[in-house]
Amino acid sequence: MTEGGNAKGQELLSAIVSAIVACDAEQAAARAKAALEAGVNPVVALQQVLAEASDIVGRKFDEGEYFLPHLVMAGDAMTAVAAVLEPAIPKGEGQAKKVVVIATVEADLHSVGKNIVAMMLRAAGFEVHDLGVDVKSSTIIAKARELSADIIALSSLLTTTMPYQREVIDDLKAAGLRNRFKVMVGGGAVTREWADLIGADGYGRDAIEAVKVARELVGVAS
To answer: Is residue 94, in this structure, part of any structural domain at all?
Structure first.
């Protein structure tokens, strides 16, 4: 089994990345199958392809070449690739999936941004539990405890609901649980300064950055 480091292996992996960047889920899955048939290591393929594709798509998004629909389609392509490669990974190989509990905080009904982040995290190999919108702090914390989550991700689009992100962190502190979970925040109204002010562990300006931050928080290689 090739690690993907030889010329042929790299060519196959680059072809998968290109299909993801082109937002072509069907072609991305077909190329992932071809890579497996050629003997490329699925663990290496999954890690390298998703990291490279995320970087390229993120750069295009930052430069204004791609927009939210492109992120959604690229996320679908990543999910299609993961669906091909993950079953080929022998049991016990690779890293155990890190668990993320994600929700839009209380009194906020916006879901689009959260849904994109959840999808991109899944595509990047995280086990994601999406609690939906308008979720109370107690519900978020209870689910995180139940699942022994690694990360709690909190979305807020409105300035009026941002304090509920702080409430989750304050409630974790009050319950003596703050050190058990990494907390990351994001959403239209949220800034890095706000994240620092409330004591969050991470901040994602968009879905691409959220994935990078999540990986950093739990020590998953990019």
So the answer is: no
